[in-house]
Amino acid sequence: MQEVYLNGDFLPADQAKVSVFDRGFLLGDGVYEVIPVYGGRSFQLLGHLERLQASLDGVRMNNPMTNVQWQTMIEQLVERNGGGEQSLYLQVTRGVAPRDHVFPQGVESTAFAMSSPLIPVEYKYKKQGIAAITLPDIRWQNCNIKAITLLPNSLLKQQALEAGAQEALLIRDGYLTEGAASNAYAVIDGTIYTAPKDEKVLPGITRELVITLAAKAKIPLVEQAVSLNELKNADEIWLSSSTKEVLPITTLDGAEVGNGLPGPIWQQIDAHYQQYKKDVDAWQ
Ligand code: PDD
């Protein structure tokens, strides 16, 4: 039986209960993290915990635990769920209070964590790439906060799926921001472009690693957003996320990207990424 963590206790998933007055349930008032686990160890944990703190600060919510407490709890949760490969989900909400837009006073936040199977990226997607469509970025002005309020992202991703694609690439004011559940990259004339870290994109942990790996591979990378037109003419397009790693997008809005196959720069970055995953001592 899957075990979850809720407010200080580990318990079977079907026994974990949250009040209907929880602000996460009523108002979507919470933040979250998704962390992959390889060989029983959580990947880039420090980066995820730092981003969790930044998200909590962004919504003026207290962190219910120190980083050491999070780390200890996560190690136990991973072990209780059998080690190996897992996908961890952490969520903090503002807690249980009578419904009101205004923040409640003196209320403890709700801390929840669960483990799910980490579904490996299908080989065919790495071999052939995936399809994406462009859609207007209908999200709010604080996309740097990893908020649980994912209705726009969900609508966008569903629209992509119904169009036969796996991801929606989002366009704001004529420029690519990111994917509905991923960061996005365009390769133009040998340079990798990804939108800068501001309130229009989530500061992806995988994105940070891609930047490090590109420097290591001596491939130029610029933190600059590309226009829709530049995107449509890019030699390569990729996405990245903790669960999807770095994936090539070979069809955009029904048209081939480059020659329609995963490109050579993606192949280099992916090789470095796979190598890094094996180098457990290098993880933060
Ligand atoms: N999402 N941008 C958005 C909007 C995302 O939802 C995600 C990840 C990313 C990539 O961030 P990272 O590399 O830190 O995973 C970028 C997770 C996986 C999710 O919501 O399930």
TrEMBL record:
Example GO BP: carboxylic acid biosynthetic process
Cofactor(s) listed: pyridoxal 5'-phosphate
InterPro entries reported in the protein's UniProt record: Aminotrans_IV (IPR001544), Aminotrans_IV_CS (IPR018300), Aminotransferase-like (IPR036038), BCAT-like_C (IPR043132), BCAT-like_N (IPR043131), Class-IV_PLP-Dep_Aminotrnsfr (IPR050571)
Keyword Cytoplasm included in the entry's annotation: no
A GO molecular-function descriptor: catalytic activity
GO cellular component terms attached to this protein's record: cytosol
Keywords assigned by UniProt, alphabetized: Pyridoxal phosphate
Similarity section: Belongs to the class-IV pyridoxal-phosphate-dependent aminotransferase family.
Protein's UniProt name: D-amino-acid transaminase
Native organism: marine sediment metagenome
